[in-house]
């Protein structure tokens, strides 16, 4: 068997296998996801790159909470008059959302999101990052 014949047989086996692996990897990739809570006071965006979860609390004091792949959550004041929310995906009160390392629980009192022992709690009057 010549070198060209061996290369053709190897390519005939390896190429379909490589395509199968690439297709499986794409199928598991999660795109950016946005959800809101029913009060339309909080909108969250999950970005798989990182990964990162950020949630905005709208109102007189617009706050943004960001939880990355490691470390404590961060809270930022946002200078904007934006109103909430354009998402079709509503996380009803009492429901839990989970993606990647993050989990959020929606309640009438607000939203609690965490990654391992770090996270944030967003309410109308009380907010906390940890």
State the main characteristics:
alpha+beta; single chain; 130 residues; 5-stranded antiparallel beta sheet; 2 domains; 38% strand
How would you characterize this protein structure?
The structure is a single chain. This protein has 130 residues and is of the alpha+beta class. The protein has two domains: 30 residues; 97 residues, no CATH class. It has one helix and ten strands, in the order H-E-E-E-E-E-E-E-E-E-E. A hairpin with a 6-residue loop joins strand 4 and strand 5. The longest helix is centred in the first third of the chain and has 26 residues. The protein starts with a helix and ends with a strand. 19% of the residues are buried. About 12% of the residues have low confidence.
Class of secondary structure makeup:
alpha+beta
Helix segment tally:
1
N- and C-termini, Cα separation: 65 Å
Q: What is the averaged pLDDT score?
A: 83
Secondary-structure blueprint of this entry?
Layout: H1 3-28, E1 33-36, E2 42-47, E3 52-57, E4 63-67, E5 74-77, E6 96-99, E7 102-107, E8 110-115, E9 118-123, E10 127-129
Antiparallel strand pairs: 1-2, 2-3, 3-4, 4-5, 6-7, 7-8, 8-9, 9-10
């Amino acid at each position: 068997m010549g070198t060209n014949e061996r290369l053709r047989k190897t390519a005939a086996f390896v190429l379909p296998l490589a395509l199968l692996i690439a297709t499986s990897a794409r199928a598991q990739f999660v795109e950016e996801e946005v959800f809101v809570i029913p009060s339309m006071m909080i909108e969250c965006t999950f970005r798989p790159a990182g990964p990162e979860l950020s949630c905005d609390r709208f109102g007189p004091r617009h706050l943004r909470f960001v939880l990355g792949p490691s470390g404590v959550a961060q809270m930022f004041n946002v200078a904007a008059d934006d109103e909430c929310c354009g998402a079709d995906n509503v996380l009803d009160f009492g429901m839990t959302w989970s993606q990647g390392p993050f989990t959020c629980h929606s309640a009438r009192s607000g939203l609690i999101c965490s990654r391992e022992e770090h996270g944030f709690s967003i309410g109308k009057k009380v907010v906390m990052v940890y």
